[in-house]
Design goal:
The complex is a heterodimer of chains A (about 500) and B (about 180).
Chain A lengths: L4 H24 L5 H6 L6 H12 L2 H14 L4 H29 L4 H9 L2 H34 L10 H47 L5 H12 L1 H4 L7 H14 L4 H4 L11 H31 L12 H9 L2 H39 L6 H25 L3 H7 L3 H14 L8 H19 L11 H19 L7 H8 L1
Chain B lengths: L2 H21 L9 E2 L7 E2 L3 H5 L3 H21 L8 H31 L4 E2 L2 E2 H13 L1 H9 L1 H5 L2 H15 L6
Antiparallel strand pairs in B: 1-2, 3-4
The chains are: A mainly alpha (about 500), B mainly alpha (about 180).
């Protein structure tokens, strides 16, 4: 079976992609309006929403970058994973109910819609919409590049596609993503998330079992091997140390509730009361899938030190090398399919919120109304954003330059810093003002860009997004307290009492 | 004291502790260094040397994060539902998080001092506290949400109030 390893992997990935296309075809019939396209008509059951929430959170970064970070610097990055359970608790307590109530009350289809209603401000809608659109371009570019690189590594290992180019791989993987995102909008997105979430959970469980069998003494022996080489690497703060780790914990724990691609899912469930079921399923899904992150990272790190496998030239090779060296071909196939699932489940969510920002939020902020026939324009915007992000991705890969780096600043950390205070506090504190909201967004953008272009470098390698988020929370509350309160619309005022 | 002032004060405390860390000159491999034998791999080196100056402020920084998280949970509950029971439950969950953070931290410093550690569930004791303890410690908040949903988050009365709100809106009682 080992000689057919590459064909088995290609087969598993191919089946996954065909399943995604199938879901897209099925979802066409369920997408009749912009509301269906962006928020699935607020009709989703708890299992679908839960899977969509967790699979949107755990992107390709978790499946490739996560093990790579553990290989590179030990346990430091695992603070991002530990923060997830706190992040979900905060998101459900502070956002899930409120955003769902506002969505039904005001018939909103996007996060900027909700925030514009909350702060009675088109400026807030515009700033949020622009932040999301730029963030989507930056984040999506990295996801598309990751998809293309992984597909190239899989196909180039077969005789038939040995010389396949990166551009061809980008076109193939992007075509699948765009197809189901355009045809079925968020309906296709969340139902593919369901499939993707299940594949990711299966991959997580199977990898842990495989990883535990690499050393006779299991994970304990792997830890001991690393401890003998460099104790700090396997200690809780890893090679990067305390400050870097704790900055990540704060950013990922508190920033989760500011991620528009995650929290817009809270607008889609049938009933508010479903949230009590959605939270535990989300947690379970994330915990099972994230086991892949640490188990591959620790075991491949120990395996290199113990001489079981050659040293890696790049930390991002950790997952592929583990799958090649230690995994059954079918397991490798499932995990590679899970990797695509992780990337696509985040990318489709970004495409959807990006399209909403482009054709709904920004036009509404600028000219007081959205485009007519929003469904039509949403599909065009989805294709356009995907192509623009792919162009950025390939440009950055082949040419490099500052532009993509600046756009990269608008990714996760930017969303966390700019949007978390507005959502987390603003939806629960009536005294929050639009001046506070605009100040928080502005200061976040400035700090993130300053860090990204190298104008400011936080000490102890603390993430720029962490500094921006801490300052943003303080500025948001402080400015709100010193500026005149703005009356909240009566209906929202009553909703905030519930 | 209003909850928002407590949250702001906690954020300011956290900023002070972060600033304290930032002002400490890095010692040893403060943020790691390249592994002498393997490319793409880092080491932390002498843990005691690099953590000596920043251990106290980092401990307090994370303690303030736990306080902020607990206050945020309270903020997420409508003021009329912030009962003494809720304060006890959230306080208890926050105290559990703080206890686990303290156990993690002290066992880490002890392992650095002795150069030895025991193993539990696949990892050195301090790391096991992080991998399992920290992740699971947040389940206290999640449990309050799931089991206290009707009491603290969204009761039948809330549902009725919201339906009435929708009805009033449909009847044209509000202008946006």
């Amino acid at each position: 079976m080992a000689e057919h390893r590459h064909l088995i992997i290609v087969f598993c990935v191919g089946v996954y992609m065909l399943a995604s296309i199938g879901v897209g075809l099925w979802a066409i019939r369920r997408t009749h309006s912009a509301s269906d396209f962006f928020v699935a008509g607020r009709s989703l059951g708890p299992l679908v929403v839960a899977m969509a929430v967790f699979s949107s959170t755990l992107s390709g970064f978790g499946f490739v970058g996560g093990p790579g970070l553990v290989y590179n610097s030990g346990l430091s990055s695992f603070w991002m994973v530990c923060a997830a359970s706190l992040g979900y608790a905060l998101a459900f307590f502070l956002v899930a109910k409120r955003i769902r109530l506002v969505a039904e009350l005001r018939d909103t289809v996007s996060l900027p819609d909700v925030l514009a209603a909350r702060y009675s401000s088109e400026a807030v809608r515009f700033m949020t919409g622009v932040t999301i659109l730029l963030g989507v371009l930056g984040y999506l570019a990295t996801q598309i590049l990751a998809m293309a690189l992984v597909l190239q590594s899989i196909l180039s290992a077969t005789a038939m596609f040995a010389d396949i180019s990166l551009v061809t791989c980008a076109v193939v993987s992007l075509s699948v993503l765009v197809f189901y995102s355009v045809t079925g909008g968020i309906v296709a997105s969340v139902y593919t998330d369901l499939v993707q979430g299940l594949v990711m959970m299966l991959a997580g469980v199977m990898v842990v079992i495989a990883a535990a069998n690499v050393f006779d003494g299991g994970l304990t022996e792997a830890s001991q091997v690393i401890f003998r080489d460099d104790p700090e690497t396997i200690m809780p703060f890893g090679a990067l140390g305390m400050a870097t780790s704790m900055a990540w914990f704060f950013m990922f724990g508190f920033g989760n509730a500011g991620q528009p691609h995650v929290i817009t899912k809270f607008m889609m469930n049938r009933r508010v009361s479903d949230n009590r079921t959605i939270l535990p399923i989300t947690l379970l899904g994330y915990a099972v899938s994230a086991m892949l992150w640490i188990s591959i990272g620790v075991v491949i790190h120990a395996a290199v030190i113990a001489g079981l496998t050659p040293a890696l030239q790049s930390a991002d090779q950790a997952a592929p090398v583990f799958l090649t060296a230690f995994a059954n071909p079918w397991l490798a196939g499932v995990v590679f399919a899970g990797l695509f699932a992780a990337i696509m489940s985040t990318a489709d969510a970004f495409l959807n919120i990006g399209a909403a920002a482009a054709i709904h939020d920004i036009p509404k902020a600028l000219r007081g109304r959205a485009f007519g026939n929003e469904l039509h324009w949403a599909r065009i915007a989805t294709v356009t954003i995907a192509l623009a992000a792919a162009a950025f991705a390939l440009y950055s890969h082949y040419v490099g330059g500052k532009l993509i780096a600046i756009l990269g600043a608008f990714g996760w950390g930017m969303f966390a810093a700019a949007l978390a205070p507005l959502v987390v506090i603003g939806l629960n504190w009536k005294r929050a003002t639009r001046a506070g909201a605009l100040a928080a967004i502005s200061v976040s953008i400035v700090i993130n860009i300053a860090v990204q272009i190298g104008a400011f470098s936080p000490p102890y390698a603390m993430a720029g997004g962490f500094v921006a988020m801490l300052v943003s929370f303080i500025v948001f509350i402080g400015v709100s307290l010193v500026t005149a309160p703005v009356p909240i619309a009566d209906d929202l005022d009553r909703a905030m009492d519930i | 004291m209003k909850l928002i002032y407590a949250i702001l004060a906690s954020f300011l405390c956290m900023a002070v502790f972060v600033g304290w860390v930032a002002l400490m000159p890095p010692e040893g491999l403060a943020v790691g260094g390249p592994h002498p034998d393997y490319p793409a791999m880092s080491i932390g080196g002498d843990g005691a040397a690099r953590t000596r100056a920043i251990a106290a402020p980092v401990y307090l920084w994370q303690a303030s994060v736990i306080v902020i998280a607990s206050l945020f949970i309270l903020l997420g509950v409508s003021p009329q539902r912030r009962t003494p029971l809720l304060f006890w439950l959230v306080g208890g969950a926050g105290a559990a998080m703080l206890a686990i953070w303290t156990l993690l931290f002290t066992s880490y410093l002890a392992a650095q001092a002795s150069g030895e550690t025991h193993y539990a569930l696949g990892f050195p004791i301090p790391t096991a506290w992080m991998v399992y303890g920290v992740f699971l410690s947040h389940f206290g908040f999640c449990a309050i949400y799931v089991f206290g949903f009707r009491r603290f988050v969204y009761s039948d009365a809330d549902e009725a109030a919201f339906q009435q709100l929708l009805q009033d809106k449909n009847d044209g009682a509000f202008t946006e």
